[in-house]
Description:
This protein is mostly helical. The protein has four helices and no strands. The longest helix is centred in the N-terminal third of the chain and has 29 residues. The two termini are about 25 Å apart.
Amino acid sequence: MALVRCWTVGIAVLVVSEYVQMTLVYGPLVGPRGVGSFGAALALVHLPNLACVVLATWAAARVHPEPWRRMPGRHLAAACAAPAAAQVLLLSLRPGVLDPAGPALWMSTGVLLAGCAVGLLLDRLVWTS
């Protein structure tokens, strides 16, 4: 049940933060035409996505109880499952992103890995202090 609680919290935080990102950043600033440059994509899409992944990972890690927190594999699964599942869902719904030559696959994967790492680092810093 501990993993299910972590996954539920991670999914809830991810959905809420992505909704806020879509309504406050992506919708008004990007619009239906999309972004025009790599810099705009980084600033308006990937960095806000990074913040969402960090928040979801951190929230899921924070609710993971002792003694399972001390098991690195289990703690990693508890904290990072929701963002990883969202990435798999995104890739399955948008097969055009799967082009290995395109930057979208690599940027979204980098955002996922960096967000999970930063979220776990935040959890470690707060938990040990």
